[in-house]
Design brief:
Keywords: Coiled coil
Protein name: MIT domain-containing protein 1
Organism: Stylophora pistillata (Smooth cauliflower coral)
Number of helices: 6
Strand order of the largest sheet: 1-7-6-5-2-3-4
InterPro entries: MIT_dom (IPR007330), MIT_dom_sf (IPR036181), MIT_domain_contain_protein1 (IPR052817), MITD1_C (IPR032341), MITD1_C_sf (IPR038113)
Radius of gyration: 21 Å
Pfam family, one: MIT_C
CATH superfamily of the largest domain: MITD, C-terminal phospholipase D-like domain
Largest sheet: 7 strands, mixed
Length: about 240
């Protein structure tokens, strides 16, 4: 039970930290995960005094989680929702699935990606991983990419060849990829047609390279260390 309790305390402590930082959506997820873990601890507890203590803690966290649900819903309905995620240097747990999946709610059919650095091979691999998330979603039918090109003709050819290969692959999954280039593009932004807008300081290129091919985090990007960056999330009313 000790390890289960430690896990519950760790997740709920993280929930409180995110709550205080006004990262309400992330905090809500952690509250829910932590409460599930704490419920399992309660089931395994035989001491009546501890049971009373755990129940009181759970009631407190449940009450706060319900208030957050209401607050987030009100902000979304008013079109004032804005959340900030601060990714610290060398932190983990920020795969594209963890960051983006909850905003792909409903019947999302179109995604716009504006990122000046989908040029080098590792950056195109990042974009591929993001597209794989959209494939798993199952409703997306159109992806628009706007990026830049290197001045070197060979680099341009390699970039176009790789993106065209991805376009062909996505077509097999009933997704059309539109590729555009702008040499004046600077800002990084991802937009879903359900109203969510995600702005990432480093764009999709916020993962650190792994120290080797046989290291934890090479395949599982939830375990991959990140560069420091900030993610701003908005909901625009239709």
């Amino acid at each position: 039970m000790g390890m289960s309790l430690d896990a519950a305390v760790s997740v709920l402590t993280r929930a409180v930290e995110l709550d205080q930082a006004q990262s309400y959506s992330e905090a809500l997820v952690c509250y829910q995960e932590g409460l599930t873990l704490l419920m399992n601890v309660l089931k395994d507890t035989t001491d009546d005094t501890q049971k009373v203590h755990y129940r009181a803690k759970m009631e407190s966290y449940i009450e706060r989680a319900e208030k957050l649900k209401k607050l987030v819903r009100e902000q979304q309905e008013a079109g004032t929702f804005h959340e900030k995620i601060n990714i610290k240097e060398e932190s983990t747990g920020y795969s594209y699935r963890r960051v983006f999946e909850k905003y792909l709610e409903g019947n999302v059919q179109e995604v716009v990606v504006e990122d000046p650095y989908i040029r080098n091979i590792h950056q195109i691999y990042n974009f591929l991983r993001f597209c794989e998330l959209l494939v798993r979603k199952g409703t997306v039918r159109n992806v628009k990419l706007l990026t830049t090109q290197d001045e070197d003709p060979e680099s341009q050819n390699n970039q176009v060849k790789r993106l065209q290969g991805l376009k062909t692959s996505l077509k097999k999954h009933n997704i059309n990829l539109e590729i555009g280039f702008s040499q004046t593009l600077h800002d990084r932004e991802i937009r879903f047609n359900n109203g969510w807008v995600i702005k990432i300081g480093r764009g999709l290129d916020y993962f650190k390279p792994p120290p080797g091919k046989f290291c934890v985090g090479f395949c599982d990007f939830d375990l991959r260390e990140c560069h420091e960056t900030v993610i701003d999330i908005y909901l625009k009313k239709a």
